[in-house]
Manganese transport regulator
Amino acid sequence: MKTMTKGISQSTQDYLKNIYELTEQGASASTNDLATRLGIAPASVTGMVQKLASATPPLVDYRKHQGATLTKEGQRAALEIIRHHRLLETWLVQTLGFSWDEVHEEACRLEHVISEDFETRMAAALGHPTRDPHGELIPGADLQMPDDDSTPLSSLRPPQDATIIRVNAIDPALLRHLDELGLIPGADLSISAHSPFDGNISIKVDDREFVVGPAISNNIFVEIGG
Amino acid sequence: MKTMTKGISQSTQDYLKNIYELTEQGASASTNDLATRLGIAPASVTGMVQKLASATPPLVDYRKHQGATLTKEGQRAALEIIRHHRLLETWLVQTLGFSWDEVHEEACRLEHVISEDFETRMAAALGHPTRDPHGELIPGADLQMPDDDSTPLSSLRPPQDATIIRVNAIDPALLRHLDELGLIPGADLSISAHSPFDGNISIKVDDREFVVGPAISNNIFVEIGG
DNA sequence: AATAATATTTAGGTATGCCTAAATATTCTA
DNA sequence: TAGAATATTTAGGCATACCTAAATATTATT
């Protein structure tokens, strides 16, 4: 009947996960960005981040007006949740036939309540996958995040070829759109044109050719060479 | 990021589920029994039950010192959770190899967070089962609880034969014990003796013979005739 | 039927995690 | 570099769901 949070509340887990994701590319996580991602008021984030910073052990480093970063402890907890989330997405797609645009929300709810035993069994049943259905890396049982050497699609220029590795998107409508275009992990593509001013690129996938803007191409990551 | 409770909190769901189970055999659910099952103080139960009774729509009928029963609405919600719980137990056993003593706790946490979509897919993948790994009946998608025509093992007398249909137990240690004895749903048994004063019966299962007391035999339900 | 034992309720309090409004700090712009 | 715009924090509140201690009601005993 408990909530299986190993003493870390569900709300805290959400904070840590989002701080992890916001700080992945270097900077610290701002109050506002966190508030937006969590769907709560900035003032509430300030209070909560202060609490996380003065917990024992502290889960985040925080100085007023400077945003938050994760401590070692906080990072451990974040990676645990991210591992849960990504294994669950994989699991839902592979065993229950969910599509990749449907699993995010479900995994967000389940990630907080599954046991370590569940996690272990799921990983084994899936053959210890290293990427989820969006191509996102799954931290290992040791909570190490593997390296990702992929490149943003937006950085390619004609006539480069590439294979899609990872699609960084949550919005179901966008994911369905990308699915229709064939822009999914594993897809091979080639760049046929690039517009320098608007950043649009023309790509060919499955013999279909179309143009994508930076809003999309910045969030698709590829391995160069088809 | 929400908790998928259709406006009914997780705590409320636990109350309703437990009231359902306590009132299944007729009487109303007392404050104390609920407190014991939920692991909280009786005073807290009083407060919560009062709240459930004055919700709109009311989820329980309640009069001071008289215990609580479910309203139609409350029963609907309870059956929804029980359906989740029992499908999940079945799912965990069949797809992740959990044993029947390990699934209760896990299902108690998951039951509150899965979507209707998840429920539907799980039911379909399992072939719309009507009983969970303990033999407990699973309410249908229409939230009708099927009839159970089984008989308590404790009511049998030599030389009756029977097949185990349902084992009403949660305690993992007890469930492992029963598993070792072969007292699991589907097992055929025959009654070889009955002690009138202590209620013990001797039963033979898988060519092994042993004695079980009423604490066990009252919670094993059978279909008479092997 | 009075008293004892048990069950339940009331009263007052706590922690969590959110809110709004107002104050303050930082960053941008001219 | 002053003022405007933006971001953040403080202060004061609220709902949920739990707690303990004390009061009261019900049930059992003699």
About this structure: The two ends of chain A are 50 Å apart (CA to CA). Chain A has eight helices and eight strands.
